[in-house]
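hey so u asked for the seq, here:
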Amino acid sequence: MSLKTLDLLVFGIYILGVIAFGVSFSFRKRTAKDFTTGGGRLPSWAIGMSIFATFVSSISFLALPGNAFGGNWNSFVFSLSIPIAAWIAVKFFVPLYRRLNSESAYFYLEERFGTWARIYASVFYLLTQLARMGAILYLLALPMQILFGWSIPVIIICTGLSVIIYSMFGGIEAVVWTDAIQGIVLIAGAIACLGVIFWTIPGGASEVFNVAFEADKFSLGSFDFNFSSSTFWMILVYGLFINLQNFGVDQSYVQRYISSKTERDAVKSTWLGSMLYVPVSFLFFLIGTALWAFYQQQPELLPLEIAGKADQVFPYFIVNQLPAGLTGLLIAGIFAAGMSTVSTSINSSATVFLTDHFKKYIHPDPSEILSLRVLRVSSLVMGGLSILVGVAFNGVESALETWWALASIFSGGVLGLFLLGFIVRKTTSRQAAFAVLAGVLVIGWLSIPAILRLGGTEVTWSQPLHSNMTIVMGTLTIFVIGFVLSSFSKTNSK
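ran it, structure tokens below
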């Protein structure tokens, strides 16, 4: 389907405006600190909207409705874990990082356990960001492919290059302010989409709920205490651990804590961003279920090749069912939000490279010009690698589940190391290193089936736990073994 002239105009003007707005911040950048933290000038509401937008991105906007369309509301349980993780974050993590006042999230690990801990955590963070950026670029390509008919790899490459330009010059201020704009546009667009579905489905909104309840589409999954499949409890535990990792050791979140003017502002922005995501993710799942009911009632409106690809149903609806102008605005909003989210990952990854690697091992005291050059070159490299990962995502069965599996694998149990250092104060560097080695072995063992499946190899055997439990078991292994070793050494010393 070709895009209407009005939609093309709205799309073009919006995207060019966002890029120009982002690049305009480059004229204000005088120091590397401005590039990475915004000089502490950012208001709490904007940072909160940026945290929310980091949660949402195109992964949520496209993959969550696809998940609800193809299944049920089991994945919504992930959102229910966020308030718990946010409370822990504002109680412990935010004060810690504000007190340390370091641009690096991994400075604390070096203070507790030495250089190896900082390298370990920062490398796994970079791997996680590559997987995340690849998933977002792939999901951005889905509506563009329906709109323009281009191949998905070509769209990923073009989008990636645009994001690289935006990221190299905008810095954290551009990321935060554009995130705030995208968050507002996407919420409004999602509400408009749901309104159109309710208005146009035969029988009205009540028909959506009647059809969906009959098919058990609102199910949160089995409540069996089973961690080998996607039960309610498995998703809740996974969500708690992955969100604790986000709030506790994710560079992009820590940068926002530091970018806030005061600790109180950092706490307010964390609560705003996290709590806003819960009702908005509810909205995304409702859209997916409503789309299922919409096309159940009118199956002739959905081609068979789209019906079998749940992640592509919502983009198809946006292009084919929304009024002219709104289609262009929503597609532009999704596209720009994805760009902004990838830009966040690129910015935080570049900060990690500068603070955790370049300044540590190459040039301890670089000039501001050299620091900015390193930030921009590392942004270019990370952006280029993310394009390759995005192309590799092409053809996956579920982008959301693939991203979750990769996030678990690349977590590296870093949260366990952080909690070990934060809670068990007597743990030594050697004990922590041994615990990490054990954690990596557990992660590797649990990841084998998921890695083989992602590589297209048929797996005839399975692990006793769901692949999403990899981060949980890796974290617990590191923490428990470190705690036992620390307790054992204290007992022997008496």
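The chain is about 80% helix and 0% strand. The mean pLDDT is 84.
lmk if thats what u needed
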